[in-house]
Amino acid sequence: MSNKAPRGVRMVITLVGKRNAGKSSLINAIAGQEVAIVSDHPGTTTDPVAKPYELLPLGPVTFYDTAGLDDSGEVGELRVKATNRVLNRTDLALVVVDEEGLTDHETGIIEKLRQMDIPFMVVFNKNDLREPTETDMSYCRNSGIPFYRVSVLESCSVSALKEAIIDQAPEEMKSDPVLAGDLFGEGDWVVCVVPIDLAAPKGRLILPQVQVLREILDCDAVGVTVKEKEIEETLASLKRKPALVITDSQVVLSVSGDVPDDIPLTTFSTLFARYKGDLPSLVKGAEAIESLEDGDTVLIGEACSHHPVADDIGQVKIPRWIRQYTGKDINFVMYSGHDFPEDLERFKLVIHCGACMLNRSEMLRRIRECHRNGIPVTNYGVAISKVQGVLDRVVRPFKL
User: Fold this and answer.
1) What integer is the mean pLDDT of 362-383?
2) Exposure b/e, 297-317, CB count within 10 A at least 16 = b
3) Dihedral sign computed on CA atoms, order 372, 374, 375, 376
4) What do you get for the CA distance between the two ends of the chain, in Å?
5) Of 33-37, 44-48, 268-272, which one has max mean pLDDT?
6) Whole-angstrom Cα distance, residue 157 to residue 163?
7) How many other CB atoms sit within 10 Å of the CB of residue 355?
């Protein structure tokens, strides 16, 4: 069994710069092993190279070595696009500068990172060949940019860089985000409703269910896991009311009918709408379902790629429920994994999964991109609760 932290909870640290700036050598020095191929030939790194790493006290992170953003030609453009996709899920960027110092290329990267609202720092690499000029350091100071001098030949400077990365990490990455732990207390009972259907992975639970159960244990509460047909009997057998019932969104309608109104109820996906995104914004986005018309196109976004089953939630159930709710002939387009369309303006609504396989930075960036294009965005659980008529109850525990 793997003991690796899930990809979606890892802080992503991306090394960017022009070709031959020493990004690969630097990531190898940080990791203390040969992660990326090193060569004097420009453009050695093609696809982004990921290295999971424990950077204490931050915990699990992923370093990405990327192709040079100055790559050219038809293949080079594809490499740059791959680097940009990594930037979309980056929490902290390291702008790696070689012995030539800051050029228009590096300042262009800095401007791009600012536009994307990505925290970053400048790393003057190859200091064994040439120290950064006072002009370059003054540029960083005057611009409020943290900068560090590094030589991969000097282990002390690499260690100092790791400390700097920890110091510059976004505040939300330095603390443990709350998934559901603020909705119950020590000793409380929390009931989790987990249907086992065709979409359930064989022999295991899906990641949101696992993370919620772990948080229940971390909070010294008592977790009870049942299938939807067992909820009434379970509630009747408990000696006191549970502090919270959390259900899979696909059965929220039947579960809401079986759970008394005085017991707080929500869904795993709604918890993730807050944990990975912006719950008030995603709840507001669900209102757009009311205004869908014949011929409108809705984007279904999934963070993971999987073989669809006969009654797949994203490709079958949600489109069916929305067509039934609206009575309209609506087109649905699916995007999976880290692919996200650039022509968002052609959609009337974006319905995103819970994003358990994305980090929070990427999900928030997708939400901002939708808003920038004037496109309402919601998520699976919120949208399902909306069309099932139970959204007000499902978001009640969050006191929006």
Assistant:
1) 91
2) ebbbbbbbeeeeeeebbbbeb
3) positive
4) 39
5) 268-272
6) 10
7) 27
- Would you report the helix, strand and coil content of the chain in percent, each value rounded to 5? 40, 20, 40
Quote the DSSP letter at residue 81. Answer: H
Evaluate whether 298 touches 320 at the Cβ level (below 8 Å).
Answer: no
Place of tokens 């330095």: 174
Q: Give me the CATH topology for the region 182-271.
A: Rossmann fold (3.40.50)
| Residue 12 in tokens | 């992503």
Which top CATH class is 278-391?
A: alpha beta
- The tokens for 379 are 């998520």
pTM of the model: 0.72
What are the tokens at 133?
Answer: 């000029």
Bridge-partner residues for 53, per DSSP?
61
- C-alpha to C-alpha distance for 74 and 30, rounded to whole angstroms: 32
Spatial separation of the C-alpha atoms in residues 2 and 397, rounded to whole Å: 34
Higher confidence at residue 105 or residue 264? 264
Contact 179, 221 (CB under 8 A): no
Give φ, ψ of 154 to 5 degrees.
-115, 105
CATH of domain 7-174: 3.40.50.300
Residue at token pair 């790493």: 53
- As given in the structure block, the two tokens for residue 112 are 């791009």
Q: Domain residue spans in the chain? A: 7-174, 182-271, 278-391
Residue type, 212: V
Average pLDDT over residues 383-395: 97
Strand residues in 166-230 grouped as ranges (E): 189-193, 222-226
The 3-state DSSP class for residue 8 equals helix
Per-residue pLDDT tens for 321-349? Answer: 999 999 999 999 998 876 788 789 999 99
Does a cis peptide bond (omega within 30 degrees of 0) precede residue 57?
yes
- Kindly state the tokens that stand for 395: 């978001």
- Residue 186 pLDDT grade (very low, low, confident, very high; cuts 50, 70, 90): very high
Q: What is the mean pLDDT of residues 210-237?
A: 95
Quickly tell me which residue has 């959390």 as its tokens: 246
C-alpha distance from residue 276 to each of 216, 248, 315, 336, 353 (Å)? 18, 17, 22, 17, 11
- Cβ atoms within 10 Å, residue 147: 19
Between residues 43 and 197, the one the model is more confident about: 197
Task: Give the integer Cα–Cα distance in Å for 251 and 356.
Answer: 19
Query: With contact defined as beta carbons under 8 Å apart, do 276 and 269 qualify?
Result: no
